[in-house]
């Protein structure tokens, strides 16, 4: 079986649903159930014996040790993290506790467990660390995208905490021989994303006739990837990735935040027009910029394409349409997020 951390979060839950749709291999899901974790995302597999859920903090090293020894996973897929940049600016402590200390605790439990393995069990064990493109800092408009050799330059407390966790994972490989794999993915979107992030927040606010907040001039650029494509990429890295290697995962879909919000408004105008006949675009409201806001992120995802044959199946147009349709069919997942700042719109 495999051990997934943070499997009640946005990407983790999508990954477990995708995994169980492609494989009969069971999953042990460890999640603390913070504000962004909700086990109802996995209600489709509630009765499925292949999904074992345990509410636990990855920072509880003895508990993690017990989990490894009870379930004897052949691999770990580590999603659990504090993930929202605005929250990391308002209150960074939880980011250090989970992203840095929690990852350390999980690595130590994995190291102790590895020491008990022999032969093929030991050779095939993998620790897949899920990271972000934000650890590299900000690109200027004409810069080439980040590649796997780009230097680290994290700018937000979130990015710095993820960068720290990347360094720990790398060191556990180099020093102790932990067979890690690391991935750096661009912005995800899709079902079950917590409605504090740009896309679900925009849809939720549009439908509630609230302002659609955009930081600064709205021209910050992100690359967007449909979450199902991220899940497929992680499956391919777990299956074929070389221990010690890092893979970039991206959608080849760079957009300004303003482009994304305009597109969402246009889709909503078609699918569920405002009662007064106006476009949702009239709800767009520019707000004071986020402190230290990175201008542009983008990754070169050539390595995973050449070495593992992964490419995104969705374009931004097909993925965003699926996402809007899913949100309209599942409005309960757009319930207002607890505000972290007056205007938070996190991409
Ligand atoms: P999320 O906030 O939706 O989910 C995080 C999950 O981790 C939640 O279920 C939460 O309860 C759990 N968690 C938090 N602290 C924990 C702890 N101490 N112990 C156990 N569980 C804990 O985040 P997400 O968007 O699904 O991101 C998942 C991972 O992917 C993160 O590591 C993030 O850095 C990375 N990532 C996200 C994106 C993106 O666009 N969302 C892009 C690249 C990488």
Protein model, in words:
With 347 residues, the chain is of the alpha/beta class. The chain has one domain: 3-Layer(aba) Sandwich (Rossmann fold). Helices cover 40% and strands 16% of the residues. It contains eleven helices and twelve strands. The protein has a seven-stranded parallel β-sheet with strand order 3-2-1-4-5-6-10, with helices on both faces. A three-stranded mixed β-sheet has the order 7-9-11. A two-stranded parallel ribbon has the order 8-12. Strand 1, helix 1 and strand 2 form a beta-alpha-beta unit. Helix 1 crosses helix 8, helix 7 crosses helix 9 and helix 9 packs across helix 11. The protein binds nicotinamide-adenine-dinucleotide. Nicotinamide-adenine-dinucleotide binds next to helix 1, strand 2, helix 4, strand 5 and strand 7.
What is the structure about, briefly put?
The protein is 40% helix and 16% strand. The chain has helices at 10-22, 61-71, 85-90, 93-115, 119-124, 157-176, 198-207, 227-240, 257-271, 302-308, 316-329, and strands spanning 2-5, 27-31, 51-55, 75-78, 126-132, 180-185, 187-189, 212-215, 221-226, 246-249, 254-256, 284-287. The longest helix has 23 residues, at 93-115.
| CATH hierarchy, class | Alpha Beta
Instruction: State the distance separating the first and last CA atoms.
Output: 33 Å
Q: What's the story with the biggest beta sheet?
A: 7 strands, parallel
Average pLDDT: 96
The CATH superfamily is known as NAD(P)-binding Rossmann-like Domain
As for the CATH topology, it is Rossmann fold
Fraction of helical residues: 40-55%
Count of DSSP helices? 11
Order of helices and strands: EHEEHEHHHEHEEHEEHEEHEHH
Bound chemical compounds: nicotinamide-adenine-dinucleotide
């Amino acid at each position: 079986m495999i051990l997934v951390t943070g499997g009640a979060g946005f990407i983790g839950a999508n990954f477990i649903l995708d995994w169980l749709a492609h494989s009969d291999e069971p999953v042990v899901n460890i999640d603390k159930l913070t504000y962004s974790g909700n086990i109802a995302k996995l209600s489709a597999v509630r009765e499925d014996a292949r999904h074992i859920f345990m509410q636990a903090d990855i920072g509880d090293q003895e508990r993690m040790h017990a989990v490894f020894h009870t379930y004897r996973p052949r691999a770990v897929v580590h999603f659990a993290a504090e993930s929202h940049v605005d929250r990391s600016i308002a209150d960074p402590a939880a980011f250090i506790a989970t992203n840095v200390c929690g990852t350390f605790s999980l690595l130590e439990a994995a190291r102790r467990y590895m020491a008990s393995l022999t032969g093929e069990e030991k050779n095939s064990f993998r620790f897949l660390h899920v990271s972000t493109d934000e650890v590299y800092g900000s690109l200027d408009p004409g810069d080439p995208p980040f590649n796997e050799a780009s230097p680290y330059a994290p700018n937000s407390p979130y990015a710095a905490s993820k960068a720290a966790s990347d360094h720990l994972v790398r060191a556990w490989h180099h020093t102790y021989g932990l067979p890690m794999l690391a991935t750096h993915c661009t912005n995800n979107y899709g079902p079950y994303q917590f409605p504090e992030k740009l896309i679900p927040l925009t849809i939720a606010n549009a439908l509630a006739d609230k302002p659609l907040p955009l930081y600064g001039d709205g021209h910050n650029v992100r690359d967007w990837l449909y979450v199902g494509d991220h899940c497929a990429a992680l499956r391919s890295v777990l299956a074929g990735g070389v221990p010690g290697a890092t893979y970039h995962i991206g959608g080849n879909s760079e957009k300004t935040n303003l482009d994304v919000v305009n597109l969402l408004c246009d889709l909503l105008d078609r699918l569920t027009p405002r009662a007064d006949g106006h476009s949702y675009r009239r709800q767009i409201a520019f707000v004071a910029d986020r402190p230290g806001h990175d201008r542009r992120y983008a990754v070169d995802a050539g390595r995973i394409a050449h070495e593992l044959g992964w490419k995104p199946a969705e374009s931004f147009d097909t993925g965003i349409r699926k996402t809007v349709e899913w949100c309209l069919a599942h409005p309960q997942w757009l319930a207002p997020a607890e505000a972290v700042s007056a205007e938070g719109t996190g991409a």
